[in-house]
Amino acid sequence: xxxxxxxxxxxxxxxxxxxxxxxxxxxxxxxxxxxxxxxxxxxxxxxxxxxxxxxxxxxxxxxxxxxxxxxxxxxxxxxxxxxxxxxxxxxxxxxxxxxxxxxxxxxxxxxxxxxxxxxxxxxxxxxxxxxxxxxxxxxxxxxxxxxxxxxxxxxxxxxxxxxxxxxxxxxxxxxxxxxxxxxxxxxxxxxxxxxxxxxxxxxxxxxxxxxxxxxxxxxxxxxxxxxxxxxxxxxxxxxxxxxxxxxxxxxxxxxxxxxxxxxxxxxxxxxxxxxxxxxxxxxxxxxxxxxxxxxxxxxxxxxxxxxxxxxxxxxxxxxxxxxxxxxxxxxxxxxxxxxxxxxxxxxx
Length: 348
Known about the structure:
Mean pLDDT: 96
Number of domains: 2
CATH topology of the largest domain: Aspartate Aminotransferase, domain 2
Radius of gyration: 20 Å
Low-confidence stretches: none
Shape: globular
Strand content: 5-15%
Order of helices and strands: HHEHEHEHEHEEEEEHHHEEEHHHEH
Helix content: 25-40%
């Protein structure tokens, strides 16, 4: 069976455990510190704080921006529920908006139409590793949280995504660009935001009291993430290579591809094709052991019972979008099998 996702893991990824056994240091320590330093180099930010998950990273990012009850946060409908959860954690009001059906991202125009006096932040997802229009969105003057859960290694105008907004977050879940099993990272160039995040994530043995959180990453997690980070360039290169093969193979099919913005370079965290036959192709491919799937389980506006007519792009993608297996550990023979079965599905 060719799965939808599969992490790229090698025996060497776990060699660091020998050092942990020698020192008996398994909580937060040198590996976490080194991971934070290396992340800063990769993303080109001054500060990084490792946490237990991408959702925890979003939660702390919102708190660092002093967002709470009575504030509004703009976010896309076409994303996972973790983003909505984080907004609700801080008791802010989520303002869910439509996405562009070509880039799959929120845009300057759509955001602008939803800004009010209560708007405190924008959570901008670089959906499936395709950078959003950062220049246009930053011009709106609202603090931007870059959700880079999909986008590690993608670039916008030759800059790493995650280095452009007020603060950014990354995920290291099992299926993400690099895996630590679980884990997340918060990056920023703003010293005050960085200090607030670090304070909020350090709850014990403090002179003064405030509500703080135990979202720390352990050295056990950080060691794996560090070894994965060393292979990031390979991961991105391999994904782009497979994506190029898919585009060439599927070009003649009656489908649409996700479109990158000019001067952006996606990492192809997911390879999405859009077709009115998506559901039938997913079912057909599954019978032959190729797991394609809807890339978003359910748009956020539908959880919130907001009327569909304001979400034309989101609904189009939800109804027609299909994710084809693409990951660095996908063997060439598996890639050719995916091509064979997807093309066969469109001929039936």
